[in-house]
């Protein structure tokens, strides 16, 4: 009886944690909302690019990471890259450089978390006892401010740029997630990468799978529906990249695969 009650309590807490994760609000952390548009500095993401070139592979609709093959030296290089980013005050950069900085930081931290805990079946297994994943954990300190992955995505990227394509840029190390891009983001390639990522995801079955009068959409569109309102809603946004959705008038449900994006 006691074991049953504990199991039920644990399940309930995990469900609450999942609910908190599934629809975090876009709430600006004003501290980070400044820039120097006159600054022409380009932050180097070559170390991150070298990691992607070596360990990212394409497999059908997915890009996967060869976590098991990452050498100790390359793990250290990844940590050094994150330390280099942490030594920069991103507020001194122009907005285009900032966007690339935050996206690459988010994605590199996520990969590091998996490597530090590998083997693991899903990123949702990380974090505290009653946490659904590590998104609320402190992961890096920049200019004396301690940040979580949730801070980077939901308090910086989403509210400052108000671009729903950000959901295709940040990667949660899961098969259901929009793919980790094979190129590091830079101020020069961000627009092209965002368009490519949106187009690829929306035209894959993990973005939308249409069977007759039923469409199964990624749960991203359920969790963050508000982010797409300015573009006329989810379907209007998706139809820009997948014209088949323009005339769709059936039922919609949502799904997401939390299995690790491993090769």
TrEMBL record:
Signal peptide (residue range): 1-22
Superkingdom to which the source organism belongs: Bacteria
Domain DUF547: 91-202
Keywords (A to Z) from UniProt: Signal
InterPro entries, per database record: DUF547
Name of the protein this chain belongs to: DUF547 domain-containing protein
Source species: Vibrio thalassae
